[in-house]
Amino acid sequence: MTTHRPDGVDTSIPVRLFNRDVFSLLWLVMASASVLTYWLGTDHPMLESARVAAALLLLIAFLKVWVIGNYFMETRDCPRPVRNAFTIWLAFSTMSTIGIVLFI
Fold it and tell me: Residue 15 carries which DSSP code?
C-alpha cells in the first residue's frame, strides 16, 4: 500500500530490523558490547584486578563512542578537520581516562 504525501515522501518502504546493511551489523556489535560490559562488570574470578576490569570496560565504552560518532552521528562524512578533531579528542580521552584508572 503506497501512501502519497504532499511533500513527495514515499511511505511504502518496509522497515526491517535485520536487513543486511552496515547499521544492522553495528547494532549487533553495540548490543554485544553492552552484554560484554555487563559480564565484565560482574565479579569474575578470571579477572585478577578490578582496575583491569575497569580499564576493559572503559575501552569498550570508548569503542562504542567511536562507532556512534562515526556511523550514527556521521562524522565519517564530515570535513577532514572535524573528523580529525573527533578522533584526536576520542584518543586523548581514552588514553587519559584509562591511564588514570590503571596508574592512579
Answer: P
Best CA proximity match to 73, nearest among 62, 60, 83, 88: 83
Confidence band for 13, pLDDT divided at 50, 70 and 90: low
CA distance 60 to 98: 11
CB 55 within 8 A of CB 101: yes
Mean pLDDT for 74-87 is 94
Q: Which three cell numbers stand for residue 7?
A: 511533500
Average pLDDT over residues 16-20: 58
DSSP 55-80: HHHHHHHHHHHHHIIIIIS-GGGS-H
All three cell numbers of 78: 564530515
